[in-house]
Design goal:
With 51 residues, the chain is an all-alpha fold. 59% of the residues lie in helices and 0% in strands. It is globular and about 35 Å long. It starts with a helix and ends in an 8-residue tail after the last helix.
Length: 51
């Protein structure tokens, strides 16, 4: 959230980044944080649908 605020990202970009970050973090072992390369790869795979 702080990164998206700093970079002036749109709501959609923020949701994609947040979702990809969460997914990448649960793919890591223990309490290790995900690497940015993994997060970057997942961002394009996040599907968003408005209701």
């Amino acid at each position: 959230m702080a990164l998206s605020e700093e970079k002036g990202m749109s709501l959609e970009e923020t949701v994609r980044l947040s979702t990809a970050t969460g997914a990448a973090n649960v793919m890591c072992g223990g309490t290790q944080a995900a690497e940015y390369e993994v997060i970057s790869e997942l961002i394009s795979k996040v599907a968003m649908h408005t209701m």
